[in-house]
Design brief:
The structure holds two protein chains of two kinds.
Chain A: H1 13-20, H2 24-58, H3 63-78, H4 81-104, E1 113-114, E2 117-118, H5 133-166, H6 169-177, H7 182-212, H8 224-232, H9 248-278, H10 284-294
Helix pairs in contact in A: 2-3, 2-5, 2-8, 3-5, 4-5, 5-7, 6-7, 7-9, 8-9
Chain B: H1 2-18, E1 22-27, E2 36-37, E3 43-44, H2 46-57, E4 61-66, H3 72-77, E5 83-84, H4 92-97, E6 99-105, E7 109-114, E8 125-129, H5 133-141, E9 144-148, H6 151-159, E10 165-169, H7 170-178, E11 185-192, E12 197-201, H8 206-221, H9 224-233
Parallel strand pairs in B: 1-4, 1-5, 8-9, 8-10
Antiparallel strand pairs in B: 2-3, 5-12, 6-12, 7-10, 7-11
The chains are: A mainly alpha, B alpha/beta.
Chain lengths: ~300, ~240
């Protein structure tokens, strides 16, 4: 990166470090932070909407819909994350390919399963074998978002379901007395008020989601933990201009700081959101705010 | 108009089939000198140079994919890439699940490394990478085996005293021993293991296997393979 970096072995410590920390491989490390942040930014709203749909269907008066919602919550919450991540992604990927295979190659006669091999016609590969690498990576990212969203959506569904049940019955009765339909009651009275009950649970989930990002490597995405392990590993002078012993401790220390500051910032933000939601609510938090204002 | 768009899409798709010769090559990227990530962040190593040369000789377009060692075979059979070229020794157990080309590195020695030359490699605690022939060998040797997901961790286990010795490919350990300043030394006798290193392919991929076998033949015949082995593994490496 800098002009003096041509021969790192001759540099003093400070300059050596500036060169070392700007190598191409470190740039990949920095980029992986953006990747993790992007994943969180995309996954959180998607998971929340999965959760909302799950909670809505679990509350549905129609039995089959309610079973569907409750089944989703029960199954996904009950399966260990790591098993889900290892099994589900391969299954999801293969089912995409199988569906596409049946559409684009109806005349294919070879069996799709040959021993251990899973073989669809080359045109049905998702993404196509000829696609550039970035398409493959984007697809991997998409699979990751879907998997994370399904897992965390189930937890969010349970939290939102609880939030909906916690809204005082009197509120809903009043709405009915005003002649609101079921739908109007749901959207105008129940949903705006449930957030204050759901937020503590949702903020827990957000924290867990932040910490779950290292599971990304199971999905073949090179996340920050992968790069920290790779960069911190012993480098010998034969294969690197920056030989160093096992430095994984320092890299992991950096990750520790990153995760701690990220969760701290989240805490502060969530605290503010909670204050705002409590405003004018018949909860002890809302009550405290009223006293504060009148005092 | 709709028809026009559809046929353009169909055309674009068929154009894709015509160049379906892209072969995706799976590797680990954590096992120098076989394959590793260099300072610039790109894949590098003996197998990367070899793989590119083989693809050139077989007139294939190749693209590299990184995958961790644990799931490298499952991802091959489910079609996420088409070959494994990751220092994988040819063994009977693996041959039941996938196919191998002929070897491109002759059977080489595995070795023990410890903090002292008289470490108990026969009855002590020995570290090895999960799902390698070395791990299989230790499990049957009578020593207590501890497994790690990456080669880096196996060596770290010896440095911090968790294991008495590490057992791995000698070519991987050699630069680490040379530069440890006397902290790491060879222990016990070298053990010849496996049927050499070959390229892994799906069992149903006979055509691709034939192409790579022919390319390896041509590199063995004109001496370029030997030159490449000596360049990456040193003068004393076993050649053809």
């Amino acid at each position: 990166m800098f002009s003096y970096c041509a021969d790192p072995s001759t540099l003093d410590t400070f300059r050596w470090l500036t060169c070392y920390l700007t190598t191409g491989v470190h740039m990949s490390f920095y980029k992986s932070f953006l990747l993790v942040l992007a994943l969180l930014a995309v996954t959180a709203p998607v998971a929340l909407s999965f959760g909302f749909l799950g909670a809505m269907s679990a509350r549905s008066p129609m039995k089959p819909v309610s079973w569907l919602g409750k089944g989703y919550i029960a199954i996904v919450r009950g399966v260990p994350d790591i098993a889900f991540f290892l099994f589900f992604v391969i299954a999801l990927d293969q089912s995409f390919e199988l569906i596409k295979h049946n559409i684009v190659c109806p005349d294919w006669t070879d069996p799709i399963r040959q021993g251990n091999d899973f073989l669809v016609c080359p045109q049905a590969k998702v993404p196509l074998g000829t696609s550039p690498e970035y398409v493959h990576q984007l697809y991997g990212f998409l699979l990751a978002v879907i998997t994370f969203a399904i897992v965390f959506g189930a937890f969010a569904a349970n939290v939102l379901y609880g939030g909906m049940q916690a809204v005082p019955r009197a509120q809903l009765e009043t709405a009915e007395a005003y002649g609101m339909t079921r739908r109007q009651t749901f959207w105008r009275v129940l949903v705006p008020q449930m957030w204050v009950y759901a937020l503590p649970g949702l903020s827990n989930l957000w924290m867990v989601l932040i910490k779950a990002t290292p599971l990304l490597f199971l999905l073949g995405i090179e996340d920050i933990v992968y790069w920290a392990r790779e960069l911190g590993g012993t480098k010998t002078s034969k294969f690197s201009a920056y030989p160093h012993p096992d430095w994984r401790m320092w890299y992991f220390l950096f990750l520790l700081i990153f995760y701690l500051s990220f969760t701290k910032v989240s805490e502060v933000v969530l605290e503010r959101v909670m204050r705002r939601l409590n405003k004018g609510q018949a909860t002890s938090g809302g009550e405290a705010m009223r006293k504060e204002a009148s005092a | 108009m709709k028809k026009l768009i559809l046929s353009t899409a169909a055309l674009a798709l068929t154009a894709g089939f015509a160049m379906a010769d892209t072969v995706r090559m799976g590797t680990e990227g954590a096992y120098p000198p076989y394959n590793f990530i260099n300072d610039a962040g790109n894949l590098d190593g003996f197998e990367i140079v070899l793989g590119n040369e083989l693809c050139k000789r077989a007139s294939l377009t190749c693209e590299w994919v990184k995958n961790d060692w644990d799931s490298i075979i499952p991802n091959l059979v489910s079609g996420n890439y088409d070959t494994i070229i990751a220092g994988m020794s040819i063994t009977d157990e693996r041959d039941e699940v996938i196919d191998f080309t002929q070897n491109y590195i002759p059977p080489a020695d595995s070795a023990y490394v410890a903090t002292s030359a008289d470490a108990d490699v026969a009855g002590g605690v020995v570290a090895a990478q999960t799902a390698t022939i070395q791990a299989g060998y230790i499990a049957e040797s009578g020593a207590a085996l501890i497994e790690f997901a990456t080669p880096e961790e196996t060596v770290a286990a010896v440095r911090n005293g968790e294991a008495d010795a590490v057992f791995a490919d000698k070519d991987y350990l050699a630069p680490l021993v040379d530069e440890s300043g006397g902290e790491l030394v060879w222990a016990g006798a070298d053990v010849p293991l496996g049927g050499g290193v070959g390229m892994g392919l799906r069992e149903s991929d006979g055509e691709l296997k034939a192409k790579f076998n022919a390319a390896i033949d041509s590199m063995k015949a004109d001496g370029t393979l030997n030159a490449l082995i000596i360049e990456w593994f040193g003068e004393n490496a076993a050649t053809y």
